[in-house]
Amino acid sequence: MKKNKNQSDDVNGYIEGYYGRLLNWEDRKLIIKSLKKNKMNTYFYAPKEDINHRLDWRKNYSVKWRKNFRDFNNFSQQFNIRVIAGIAPGIDFDFANFNNTFDTNVKSDINILVQKSQQLISDGATAIALLLDDISNDFQKNFGNKVSEGKSHATLANVLSKKLNANIFFVPRVYADELIEESPNYLIDLHASLNKNIKIFYCGENVVCKTLPNFPKINNKFLNQIVYWDNYYANDYCPRRLFVGPYSGRKSFKNIMINATGLIKTDLLILDIITSTINKKNPNKAWLETLNAHKVPLVFNQIKKFFLKPDFSSVPPLNNYSFNSKYFEALELLLWSWKSQLSREWYPYLFGLKHDLQLNQRTLTSERLIKTQNLPLAQYIKKGEL
Predict the structure, then answer these.
(1) CATH of the domain at 114
(2) Is residue 181 one of the residues assigned to a domain?
(3) pLDDT at position 7, please?
(4) How far apart are CA 329 and CA 47, in angstroms?
């Protein structure tokens, strides 16, 4: 993607933007150190599990949280890592009573949003991100057919940027090409109104993309700087799976940020994998060397095919599968002989794979099936006489 006059410095790094997990402050500092080591420059704080970030976004952070956040920002500055602080008001922002006015004496949603953003900046955040992703497609139902959702979202971003006197980041509700079909006018209306200096987070052609930058449709509409929100390694949408393979389909790490797993040792490994394997002639060799540096047993190579990469596109094909008895041998060693913090993070995924292989080979007893599988799945499998 060519850089235009509205673009600023490249943005790359780590997004704490997943569901189901929440890092602690010491873990976040470990990520900062890893970003510095891997020549990345940005930490994006936007955890879905932080209740004050999304579900109860109007509520101010506690004195203790703000102290920890200030300390985290001071720590990040020592390593020259920028911190983007996200706020996600889209679940229930009051667009019906939203206008461009701002009065600190009025307790409106826009005032609360601006004041909270100012607080995060005063506590050391270098930028603010407005997130309107992962909300229901019911804007017209809630606010009427005469109001454009795309224009309303753009206006909100513009007002926030103006009141903060800063070029903010923005995550639109339609954040991948595959989401355009259900809301074909959203990006059109957004483009017509959004300030061109506001940076947009976008996933690409798909929510989980095989290649980046892949010139998604947003590139044909917007002059804004596009920063790719990369879900390559994210697993909150498939919590029984884990992806730790070489970072492929990306020629550079410019304007790409990684939404990872929330497993701290795994994420530190993933950041090292990105740097060591991206656009390399022999990524597999570099990948194995990185695993070895993190003390992953060599036997993991026997079952790597199950952990390499996600299934891309909105309608991924079902691939053929062939069984190898060495899978069980490798799993036994990894489950019972490998002891580390990383092995403990991987334990449920390794054990889940073992059960899946046993089901495939029809070696899981009926008693074990009932004990280990959830009721709907167990009933389904039993009906199939497996």
Answers:
(1) 3.20.20.80
(2) yes
(3) 35
(4) 38
